């Protein structure tokens, strides 16, 4: 039986799972690719879990993401097509990234990293500008530094 999916991407960088939510065309795949490539350039492990659709499950308060079986190892490159990529079968989610319009971004938010409830699990979340992978990468780098002090700089 297939579980319901949400419109999102999931990837793992180092030992941390990142769930990226956003509208169609907001840059989820571009950001996923930028994060993976940046981590790999620094000698860190990084791989896609799922592109475009993600199945979520909560077990003991931990949120796990996995791809629908029809999307395993596939990524859409807008304007190019569907490609096969290195992937993992599932990941525990540690950070939720919501891609929003630049005009919606607060210049200096009261809480750069917020608490987010998803499927009954409490997680950390940040907002990043849509269709701006380098700006989003920078914000995710700082969120990781805040959330996981002492961890390597993955990006």
Would you list the SSEs in sequence order as H and E? EEHEEEEEEEEH
**How would you state the average pLDDT, rounded?**
94
Radius of gyration, whole Å: 14 Å
* Amino-to-carboxy terminus distance: 37 Å
Judging from the principal axes of the Cα atoms, what is the shape?
Answer: globular
Percent range for β-strand residues: 35-45%
Major sheet attributes: 5 strands, mixed, barrel
> Which regions have little confidence, pLDDT < 50, spanning 5+ residues?
none
Helix content: 10-25%
The secondary structure category is alpha+beta
* E-strand count: 10
**Largest sheet strand order:** 1-2-8-5-4
Helix segment count?
A: 2
* Assembly classification: single chain
Describe what you observe in this structure.
There is one protein chain. This protein has 155 residues and is of the alpha+beta class. Helices cover 19% and strands 41% of the residues. The chain contains two helices and ten strands, in the order ββαββββββββα. It has helices spanning 28-41, 133-147; strands at 5-13, 16-21, 46-50, 53-59, 62-66, 74-77, 81-84, 91-100, 114-118, 121-129. The strands form two sheets. A five-stranded mixed beta barrel has the order 1-2-8-5-4. A hairpin with a 2-residue loop joins strand 9 (114-118) and strand 10. Helix 1 packs across helix 2. It is globular. The protein starts with a strand and ends in an 8-residue tail after the last helix. 34% of the residues are buried.
């Amino acid at each position: 039986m297939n579980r319901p999916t949400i419109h999102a991407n999931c990837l793992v960088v180092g030992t941390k799972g990142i769930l990226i939510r956003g509208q169609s065309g907001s840059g989820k795949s571009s950001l996923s690719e930028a994060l993976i490539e940046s981590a790999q350039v620094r000698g860190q492990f990084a791989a896609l879990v799922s592109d475009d659709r993600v199945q979520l499950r909560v077990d003991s308060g931990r949120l796990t993401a996995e791809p629908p079986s029809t999307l395993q190892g596939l990524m859409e490159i807008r304007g190019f097509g569907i490609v096969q990529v290195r992937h993992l079968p599932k990941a525990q989610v540690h950070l939720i990234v919501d891609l929003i319009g630049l005009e919606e971004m607060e210049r200096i938010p009261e809480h750069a990293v917020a608490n987010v409830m998803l499927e009954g699990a409490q997680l950390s979340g940040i907002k990043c500008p849509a269709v701006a992978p380098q700006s989003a990468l920078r914000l995710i780098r700082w969120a990781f530094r805040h959330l996981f002090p002492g961890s390597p700089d993955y990006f």
